[in-house]
Amino acid sequence: MDSNFFKDFSDKKELEKYSSAFTLSDMEIFIFPDLFYPLIFADIMSPQLWIWRDDPWFKDIEKKSFTNKANRIKQYIIQNYVFNLDLSTWGLTSKSAEIARFSDFFDMEMLKQSNALFGYEGDKYYFDIDIRKHFGLDKFDSDIIPYWKTETIEAMTAFRYKDNFTSGAGECVSLSALYAAAMFVVGRVPLEKIFLIATPLHSQNFIIEKDGLITNNRRIVTKNMWYNGTSLSEKARRAMENEKVTIVSHISGYIHTLYNEATIDREAYDLFSVKLKEFLVTDLTKLIFINFLRFKSKYKALFQYRCECSGKQRYISLEKLFEYEHTSKFNVSAETRASLVKEIEGDEFHLSPIQGKIMLNDVEEILETHSGKSLKEIENEFTKIIGIVSEEIIHEMFTELKDFIFIDPEIPDFNKSFISTDKLNIMAEESREKIINTVARHSGKSELALLSLYVYRQMDKIDWLPFIKAAIERNPVCFTDLNGKSTSEVYNILKNMSDDSIYDGKRLALPDEVWNFRRGDGIEKALLLADFLHHKDSSSSVSIEIENKKVTLSLNGGDFHFTSHKSFRKSIHITGTDYTII
To answer: pTM of the full predicted structure?
Structure first.
């Protein structure tokens, strides 16, 4: 086996990073941002993603426009994956445990600046509703926090085997990674155009194509959609409006708000910065103003609309117009407003102007005649037509209008030391096999490539120590569910499970993946039993002997036998937190 695939794991930080490549919790990615992009590569290398190309849904997609590709991929993801962020899937840890794990090489006070569960208060929305209560943590001690592990495409797809799920599932970082990988593999979008954006409570992608595109959980948001005032755009906007961007990750590297060194290509990051800021600003037009009123509904009540019905002037409140939008294919925008008005019952109209309301017609005339003028100048014009509406309310509206049409994203600044690293040159036209070979070939000099093999779980090409550490120390769900059962009872449960692994070839699932999806290869089942025994008695000494198909777990003279189809030869010895793999 090539020694280039291995690291010196006597260094605690290196061991924690490479072990984190398997569990990929939100906190692990925050502390080790170089793990972010390897998740993309793990999905890109997965056979489960490449079979999408053969789905009739994507027939001839390579001939389609970028927008068509993005929409097809979006719809496929919506149909096959739901958003999941519960506490039971990957279990719980504690602040004290995470502090003990990372404090030797990370300032935990800095963590509070960027992690909601450690004190971050960037998105006021969550703190207004009490974030711990929102996520169901209020029933636990305040020290308890969720793992919230990021799933590979295999784990996401395997949710269909889990109780109460009929499709795949994943949390927001998992969905971001899946979108990025799918846009490359299925949409043939170059990786150079895809940027991953992490904020303390969200993960999105920004794709530099046309005016730009943001992926948000299972949805996509174009620039036009960003300003359409719908509930979807409102949710998509919240992270950019309220949170700092902690990490931007790219094929060329990453930049982290708290780290002085950045590995991302400076020119690539400059392009990202320019294009994102262009995406987040728009001109104030009649359409944008109507969208703003849809977005900030409290201001609808200020306006009325004058129209002609049967040759006579009629007046209707803007609130009523928006109300009819919900049941019509037409909307309040100027282009379809006349058609919408024709659908409205006659008794909804007034014969005279409605007292105390501003005429929308006059507003739109101001917007047309003052196109390109500053918001302050337009606000001044508004004050001439507002009647009895107070200038204070109009000023408040314009303050919020400015926030609607202009967001200055809090991205990591350029005051970093940009470090050049070995880049992976992966082309969208290449085959899966060629991409895997490129990653393996560069793993001796590119940490991105090496970490990708670890995230991918390519167990015949990586050191098993980080995997065993992750399996035993950070998979609490199987023990929580099995706690109170005897070893023989757990063994019988495992023996009666399906022998199919969720990972193909020489790749392995973690114990909680085996337990959640009720299936696993003999090696995976033996590790789950070892995890159970370790949690039951942390001082116990467990040995696992793998001889191709034969897998034997030994504990205090007792042997438990499993069958594997992975064709490995390994001896694993676990005593407390000491792991020996031969």
So the answer is: 0.92
